[in-house]
Amino acid sequence: MAHVGSLRRSRTPVAVALSDDVCRKPVVVARSDAVCGYILLASRAYNLLASRAYDLLASRAPPLAGSGSLSSSVAVSAAAGFPKWVLLEPFVFRRDDDDSFPDETKAPIRASGLTSWGARFSIAFSLAEPPLISHIYAQLPVPGFPGPDEGDPLAILATHGPLALLRVATHTPTLLLLQDLFIYSAHENPCLLKILPPCTEPAFADGQFLGRPATPRLLNTASTGLWCRGNQFVVAELSLYRPGSSFMVFADICLLRSCTSSSHNRCDGRWKSMLAEILSANPDDNDLRHLSSWQTETIIPFRKWLCWIDYNRGILFCNMSKVTPTVSFLEFPLDKFPLTSTRIATGNCWYRGVSIVDHGRELKFVNVARQDGIFFEALEPGTGFTITCHTLVLDCRMVWKKDYTVTSDELWDANASDRLPRGILMFPRVDIDRPHVVHFLYIEFGHVEKNMWVVAIDMSTKTVESLSVYIDRKDSSTDTLCIKTVEDLRHFQRESLRTDSLIRQKSMSPMPFLPCEFPKFLSRKMTKSTSAVRSLNGQK
User: Fold this and answer.
1) What is the pLDDT of residues 284-297, one digit of tens each?
2) pTM across the whole model
3) Running DSSP on this structure, what letter comes out for residue 59?
């Protein structure tokens, strides 16, 4: 077995043991070069007057008949201040003009930033206590950014504690892609988005580093995560690499260490690259197949690790508390694994979820197993599903402990159909404050544009706590009653277009909600500073 030090490279690689507590064996694999990504959806013509403005939909939609209202504690917490944690919709609502960008009463958490190409932009968060969904708005004025029909210039990539990582992008007249990464800190008052230094580390391919790029390296945002401790944080990209004829696989890591107490609008630090040998927590022959078919689907921070997750395989634990990170692999507690890396054959990322609870001390894995084996459709008549939850136990080694198993029959017997529709539950997210509660997304199939609800279930009693409307494709006619002028019509068309974009994306390629805890770090003076932020951005 070739030692990592024998690889030809222009810098010293890293081969390290994985755990402080346990000596683990290296993973030997055949190949690992899969690229993570979601299917790009083709643009479709919009019927502007047929869809409802999402903002109005969200504010008006009541719980379904018979579903009961949300707990009164939600309203009390909202009145007392910001929620301790939120479920954030990853879809960014673009509002480029001042009239459409939400004011402080609707989105009190605001921040601004300046890109490396000199374009100023703003973001705003509208926060709600779960099971209600929170949203992010962006003001990306043209010509500093591509037009609304030319792409998605801003995305929220990750959060950890008081921090959030955002990507902002544009293209030059010669179609060269420019990309900046920003850190948002809930501790700052007023909030500023601090830009990260550009990555100039050479890419690694074909067994060697390609030399420092003339322009900043574009990181793969689908493989980039965020980890923090105190005022220190790490932004890291991880991909898998196998030397040409070797049977060993390595983690190719590119990371930046910095701190939130750096200069006014810029983070300090320098990007570094390294190779780390991947070791297995519980060595098994399946490790060969798992890593050779690896595709990162999400990245979450947990204790001292930043975790890269493939819902078909397991978790790569990267220890960020060390100057030189170490990496280990642990497979999920599943009865069977797919033979290939083909995502469309499984769709497991839609029915599985890893959640961090108990103030970041516990990691839980929830799996919704369909009996019919269908990818993205309604349940076949006469079939159901089984929900299992496991907790990761950290003793002398990492092991999974089963918490419970609940079947669809048990849930349907305990809840009337008007409280729990007889269909598949998707995107499980464990409640951070109450781990016995799991939030799901229920989708009504049978239409191109689908109705959706957020379902909160107490798994200890198998009873539904709440069922709240998230997307209602039908309720749009009342909005047209307020159209009296040409300007009213134009405003309605703009809002309808943005609404339609969300509905179509969620209907055809839904994404999970992003659990965030940064609201609990917000200063109580934050709302008083929003006017100062607006003044800084030149808003009226």
Assistant:
1) 656 656 787 889 99
2) 0.79
3) H
